[in-house]
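Suppose a colleague, Dr. K., hands you the sequence of a protein chain of 529 amino acids and asks what its three-dimensional shape might be. Before reaching for any lab equipment, you can write down a predicted structure in token form. Begin with the sequence itself:
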Amino acid sequence: MRLKKRLITILFISFSIFLGIEFIGGEFYFEKIFRYVKMKELKNISFIKGNIINYKKLKTYQEEKNAFVIILDKDKIMNMENFDYFTITDEEGIKKTFLLNAFLDNLYSNSNFSIDNSETLNITYFNLIGNYCVPIIINNKFKNYIDYKLGNYNLKKHHLIGKVSSIETSQLSFTQGDDLLEILLKLNNFSNKNIEYQEADGDLSRLIIENKGDYKVIIFYSYENINDIFPTFRIYFYGKIFLFIILIFIISKIIEKKIISPITNLSNVADEIGQLNFTQISYNKNDEIGDLYKKINNMSLRLEEMISLYKDELYKNGIKNEELEEKIKNFMHEVKTPLSAIIGFSEYLREVTPSEEVEIIYKEGRRLLRLSNETLSLETKKNIYTFEPFDLGMIIDLGSRIFKKEIGNRNLILTNITPIEVIGDREKIEQVIFNIIKNSTEYAKHKIEISLDVADDLVYIYIKNDGPHIYPDSLNKIWNKFYSDKNIKGRGLGLYIAKEILEAHNSTYGVKNIKKGVEFYFTLKRNRV
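The predicted structure, expressed as tokens, is then:
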């Protein structure tokens, strides 16, 4: 159930974040993003190349961008086909062009506007640019036509009486010319601009004026179309939220049936396996969960087989260890007789021809005899320790001479080995040091290093070799009785005996892998006289 709640929560949060971003983006930023992208599109003026106007591309540009364009060559409009207009020649012979788009849009007359060629008109107008004008009032012999909207503009008005020399009607279907003319009348100049206008009806428009070669391009775009569709966008977003809620519910049910229930079943089976109740489970679909079920079944079967095998091995190993202990005890019994003879003979030689070699034979013989006695009493823990001061440096020096042959061509490095007294059982500590040195000779490649360090009341003994690392899983196990694996030589008694001795001395001991090799270490109490 926890997994089900978590998945449903993740689904809900994910969908909610997605919807929130989409809703906020649509509600607050869509229009801004649209305007920014639209402005970039409008400023991509591709219909003028090398001071040549491509009127076909201009028409396509206006249709695709839904924009109204005026191209000026100084004070001359180069694309008059966008406008409804007529021309009049005044009494001085000056021709003026009157753009009618705004006038016709604002006309309050009940009858259609109508003028004829050669007809005399009395016109009140605003100057737009050059000889282009926007009429406010047009009087002929039949009717007065008045643009009451433009008539309220606070601009300088001009009057003209003249005859109509030509009348032209726009060949294009753009409806934005009236708004553009009204905005241009309010401009003081036609310098480069990129501005937005808020119209009286609340609609926004964008006006872009840029130079392109020798031409000045005026681009006008009204956002009124996009504003009309925003209510529809809101309905769309609200509907999408409702549909997503239903979709989350349906998906959660599918996930529960197809994924969560099988996984919950797997969890229950894993608990059973953890309690050593090995059961087989079934799942009929050939998918990833089906593969997982097969692997769980296979793991359960193998674990059952391994545990059964392990139990058999434990039983067999128990018998083998008992046999090994019995053989060791028999060996120790048998070795005591020749050891006694060696000790007796070396004791005689000590009196007759004393030498360092005879002294080593005598001492090591007695040590081996004690070791055999202690091994025979290993299970009963009846070892007796005699704690007294002794020179630790002397024992290390003795060990270096005893194992000189085993060390062979490898380097034996003694660091800071000086006479220093510690408290402990001399022979037992000697046994620990000799065991670890012997162990090092079996693994070292090029060198063995023995060093001492003194800190307060403790003496630290380090014995390193540059042999292979010990597996991490074996670092603590090598101190166990009879422990061995394919990479550890011997029967597993030497380090076990060393552990027993060190623990009796309350020593801190251990073994660790170092950068190049293995390091054994232990501590002894320093004798302060």
